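Need tokens for this chain, all 245 residues.
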Amino acid sequence: MKNTQSDCLRERLIFALDGTGDLAGTVSWVERLRGHVGMFKIGKELFTLYGPGIVRAIQGTGAEVFLDLKFHDIPQTVAGAAEAAVGLGVAMFNLHALGGRAMLREAVSAAGRKAEDLKIRKPIILAVTVLTSLDADDLAAIGFCSSLEDTVLNLARLAQDQGVSGVVASPRDILAIRKACGPDFIIVTPGIRGRDEAADDQKRTATAAQAVAWGTNYLVVGRPIRLASDPIVAVENIVQEMSGA
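Here are the structure tokens for all 245 residues:
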């Protein structure tokens, strides 16, 4: 039974698998890191290449899956996708909050019914607020009139009101979301980078220690682990940083 602080922190660390190679290479990463992280994220790249088979292959190692496909379509379509995600037995999946109230509400309802029919635990359902690759200038260029923070908070509240478990949001948004949505709302944060890491396509980033101190529930980390000379050491360093927070 896992009960040490380190074990609890590992359960909150999600490794992003996109970019880890072919099917065999991806599974080898899971086998390598299972026990060091709590969950594995499958994004659009891997799912487009291998479909549901990649989910089953990862689950076959005993690991849990976060299906990161960011469903965004008309309510009926997303409800069907939510049912399919539940049928795959994933631990977590997400959709775009910009899909609106009806889409969010119907996805949550469909997922609940499917889980009940299958007699399994309903996955954690997350709504994406504003991607970490976007900043205030990007939102203005798209045509948003509200500030970045107001947009994030409006989307987080919208998702919470429709029964969504939590959000995927930049670590820079954690404090505001936690204040607006309370202690039980789940916050999952990508964009975790070291203080001295070079800039990339993630614009609104923070360190693991900052994200934990600000109140995140889960950290999603990909490149800082995947590109490290020793990925296990990189994971251990992140867990130690989380512990210090």
